[in-house]
Design a protein that fits this description.
With 324 residues, this protein is an alpha+beta fold. It is 24% helix and 15% strand. The two termini are 55 Å apart. It has a domain at 119-322.
């Protein structure tokens, strides 16, 4: 079978001055204004590639066609063939499906999901007492009107985009109908807090606490949920509502400490931010651990827990490795 690339050749119209000038540069080549046009169709615009008029079954077999193509590629008189621009270098920094398909590992080659599967939500330490009194974490669209103070930590611009974005499976609705968790630690959102680039949220990462639970605990409690294989705002992110599909998450990327996109893989950051979303309310009793940055913050959190003795008392652990 003739190679696909060999069916394309670069030609110039017979009347094109560039074609004539190129031929003049060849030593011993006589140029005539009445030279007959080549057998190929030269009706294309200047500098474009056209399909060869040689049929696949002609005497010009694959070897000859490939040699001709190789000769044209190396000819210095022809315009240089630039490789396509990688999505990472595009001005809009958009990663397309074609790039994702070439960089995302096949399911058979991915790391198996950890069982039980951890889910983690970041909150401000000032919001901890409110959650203890409410006995639950509520989705933004289902917050209790009890007057208790809850300090948001998310970028307002991102939250506006999530307000009406539909969820395509499970209980459906909008993203802000759900309590959101990440599967992994050291998220890009935490990085922004570390760099103090989240509007209206001073204090950096030191004041943030991880609420830790598992996807299986949510399922066993009868909670309705969905999860994604990447950031929920990305149009090419896939959505699921069955725990049997957890293998579709790139767990190696979720657990990566360095998640920046690269020229070889322009989809790392999206896959790092795979989410687990619980519909409407997540009971406080399902939070089995609170992770903080250091011992001093752990002491503060234990004091807050002790002030509300009737509430469920999760284990408090300091893990600096979960922070930047």
């Amino acid at each position: 079978m003739r190679p696909f690339a060999a069916s394309f050749r670069r030609t110039w119209p017979a009347s094109c001055p560039r074609r004539t000038s190129c031929r003049k540069k060849q030593p011993g080549n006589k140029v005539s204004s009445t030279s007959p046009p080549p057998a190929q169709d030269c009706s294309t615009a200047h500098g474009r590639s056209v399909r060869s008029s040689t049929p696949l079954g002609s005497k010009n077999g694959p070897d000859e066609a490939e040699q001709h193509l190789h000769h044209e590629r190396e000819d210095p008189r022809l315009p240089r063939q630039h490789p396509p621009i990688h999505p990472e270098l595009r001005r809009d920094r958009t990663v397309h499906r074609s790039a994702i398909a070439s960089t995302t590992p096949p399911i058979a080659l991915r790391m198996a999901p950890p069982i039980p599967t951890p889910i983690r939500r970041l909150i401000h330490v000032d919001s901890l007492r409110t959650l203890l009194l409410r006995g639950a974490v509520h989705a933004p669209n289902y917050c209790s009107a009890d007057g208790l103070y809850y300090r948001p930590i998310h970028d307002p611009e991102v939250q506006i985009k999530r307000q009406d974005l539909p969820v395509p499976c499970g209980p459906r609705g909008a993203i802000k109908d759900y309590v959101s968790f990440y599967f992994g630690a050291r998220s890009p959102m935490l990085y922004r807090h570390w760099k103090h680039t989240v509007p209206g949220s001073p204090g950096g990462q030191d004041v943030l606490i991880y609420l830790c639970s598992t996807a299986q605990a949510a399922g066993d409690a009868g909670l309705r949920f969905v999860f994604t294989d990447g950031h929920s705002l990305a149009h090419y992110t896939s959505w699921f509502d069955q725990l049997s599909d957890l293998e579709r998450v790139d767990w190696a990327m979720v657990q990566e400490r360095q998640w920046a996109d690269t020229l070889e893989d322009g989809d790392r950051c999206r896959r790092k931010q795979a989410e687990f979303l619980v519909h409407q309310v997540f009971p406080w009793s399902l939070v089995h651990e609170l992770v903080v940055i250091d011992a001093s913050r752990a002491a503060q959190v234990r004091n807050i827990l002790a002030a509300v003795p009737a509430a469920h008392q999760p284990l408090v652990v300091a893990r600096k490795g979960w922070y930047y």
